[in-house]
Known about the structure:
single chain; mainly alpha; 9 helices; 67% helix; 0% strand
Amino acid sequence: MKKFLTSIVFVLYTTVSFTLFAETDGEKLFKMNDPTGAVPLLEKDAASGNVSSDTFNYLGLAYFQLGEYKKSMDAFERGRKIPQSNKKLLYFNQGNVAYASGDYDTAETCYSFALAASPEFYDSLLNRANSRLMMKKYKECLPDYKKYVEVLPDDPQSDNIRKLISYLEEEIQHQIEEEARLAEEQRRLEEENRRLQEELARKEAERLAREAELRAQEEERRRKLLEDVANSLQQTETTNMTAGAEDVLDYDYESELE
């Protein structure tokens, strides 16, 4: 496939909240681009329960800015347990952190949840397509890209995405043809293997038949040999034959007959 990748919409979203909660010092420091100072204060807010809909989103973003991706992911997950939190943004930002970490599978999942929360969250649609592209899920990412340019035809990235769509369609067609070629190759290999197995079986059967024939011939040879020996020992000539009357008993007695 041609080397072409549209850039991810890597916007770490924040929101402006209008709640009954006053803005905390941690949130103020985050907005002042001071993640180092914001993190401990935001963690303190989280521990005390003094949280707004943005607290965990800011906390996750602050950890991300500090390069602590695991803690960032954890903050977004903790935030989703808060009823008033913005689930869409938490999933989206968590997906961005996962993407930045190279965990494209988790990123795809997070973007899908963000879309479930808000189907018209098209930045999440584009980022999910990019995640799938990075995992070479070409058939899965293509519909996302097509939908994105369909609903946002004037987006600054639309032309690049259309080019990418064209490349993906070529790649998918190539994959289909390659899969067919490999399937045919496998069929021929299996057919040749069956032929070889049948040939080996035939040769083995012939070998066994020859061995059986040789054994039968050997058995016949031994049988004749034994028969010849037996015949040579058998006394059948007339000079050696007897009527069985060679030995006669003599009786000395006087007849009492008159």
